[in-house]
């Protein structure tokens, strides 16, 4: 275990953890997390919350991007940060890149016009960038009187939730969290030769992957431009992404009685492999904070750039 938190942050985190002991216990219970999660909280989550709060400028919303692969713990981290900030007197809000997916009809149209692989949600090009930018802008400029609807996507139906059912936020926002598997991603520069079976067999001419890269170069560069601070949950490697996704799906199959097979998951993950590999190669050197995960999902190190 290693970290680079300033001494003042570490000392303040110790005091805050003691003060929030019952709230932390409730959080672990509500999220059905193991008791060992408290170590993550004390050494990484609470110090990160304090470190980010220090970056907040007066009269300006701090926009924090959280990037991390599937199963890296983005949602849990987001929920916990908001809990801590509430106790520190900061007003926060957040949403996921997943919440601004294009509708099923829109993705079907995109698949017909550009490439069939774009019907599968996930990669850049399958999100409503304008909706994301509008949501960020409205939350950052909230005057406290207007109720702001925050987009929500229902993965169980593969469809955007009706707007009338979106969560609402009222009031100023001191810190805004925007999380997602490729938040802050940049275009790749190492060519577009196929790197896996999906690219070789279903995108042999490179139409799909070149379109995705063009989206990163254009619209998604604009979407990520408002980020003031970037936090990366760094998975060990691509093999871990695949294994963690398989574990998630096995739990879903056990609970629901249906789900993707291991072979289907392998194909599914290949949609995201190129960008994931590029993220692992280039983002650690520029993210403001890198939380390095071990193969057991536990954070092993915090590194500040």
Give an account of the 3D structure.
By secondary structure, the protein is α/β, with parallel strands linked by helices. Helices cover 46% and strands 15% of the residues. The chain has twelve helices and ten strands. It has helices at 7-19, 21-30, 37-54, 74-88, 104-113, 129-140, 197-202, 207-217, 219-224, 238-256, 262-270, 273-282, and strands at 62-68, 92-96, 147-149, 153-154, 159-160, 168-170, 175-180, 229-234, 289-293, 299-304. Strands 2-7-1-8-9-10 form a six-stranded mixed beta sheet, with helices on both faces. The chain has a two-stranded antiparallel sheet with strand order 3-6. Strand 9 (289-293) and strand 10 form a beta hairpin. Helix 1 crosses helix 3 (37-54). The model has no long low-confidence stretch (mean pLDDT 93).
The unreliable regions are none
Taking all Cα atoms into account, the compactness measure Rg is 19 Å
Report, as a whole number of angstroms, the end-to-end distance.
18 Å
Largest sheet: 6 strands, mixed
Task: Give the spatial strand order of the biggest sheet.
Answer: 2-7-1-8-9-10
The number of distinct helices, counting runs of at least 4 residues, comes to: 12
- What's the total count of β strands? 10
- Helix/strand/pairing category: alpha/beta
Average pLDDT over all residues: 93
Shape: globular
The amount of beta strand, in percent, is 5-15%
Q: State the helicity in percent bands.
A: 40-55%
Helix-strand string: HHHEHEHHEEEEEHHHEHHHEE
Keywords for this entry:
globular, 305 residues, 46% helix
Quick structural gist:
By secondary structure, the chain is α/β, with parallel strands linked by helices. It is about 45% helix and about 15% strand.
């Amino acid at each position: 275990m290693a970290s680079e938190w300033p001494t003042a942050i570490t000392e303040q985190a110790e005091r805050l953890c003691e003060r929030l002991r019952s709230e932390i216990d409730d959080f672990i219970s509500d999220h059905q997390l193991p008791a060992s999660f408290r170590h993550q909280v004390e050494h990484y989550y609470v110090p990160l919350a304090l470190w980010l709060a220090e970056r907040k400028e007066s009269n300006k919303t701090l926009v924090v991007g959280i990037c991390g692969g599937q199963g890296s713990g983005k949602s849990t981290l987001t929920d916990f940060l908001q809990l801590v900030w509430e106790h520190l007197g900061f007003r926060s809000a957040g949403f996921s890149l997943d919440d601004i997916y294009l509708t099923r009809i829109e993705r079907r149209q995109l698949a017909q016009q550009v490439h069939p692989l774009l019907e599968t949600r996930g990669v850049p090009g399958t999100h409503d960038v304008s909706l994301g930018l509008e949501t960020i802008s409205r939350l950052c400029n909230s005057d406290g009187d207007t109720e702001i609807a925050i987009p929500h996507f229902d993965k169980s139906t593969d469809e955007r939730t009706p707007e009338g059912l979106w969560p609402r936020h009222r009031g100023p926002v001191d810190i805004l969290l925007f999380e997602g598997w490729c938040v802050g991603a940049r275009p790749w520069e190492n060519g577009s030769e196929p790197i896996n079976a999906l690219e070789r067999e279903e995108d042999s001419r490179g139409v799909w992957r070149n379109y995705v890269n063009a989206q990163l170069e254009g619209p998604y560069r604009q979407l990520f431009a408002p980020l003031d601070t970037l936090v990366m949950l760094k998975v060990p490697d691509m093999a871990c992404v695949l294994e963690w996704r398989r574990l998630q799906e096995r739990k879903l199959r056990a609970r629901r009685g249906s789900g993707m097979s291991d072979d289907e998951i392998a194909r599914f993950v290949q949609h995201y492999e190129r960008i994931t590999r590029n993220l692992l190669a280039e983002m650690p050197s520029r993210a403001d904070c890198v939380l390095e995960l071990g193969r057991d999902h536990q954070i092993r190190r915090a590194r500040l750039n």
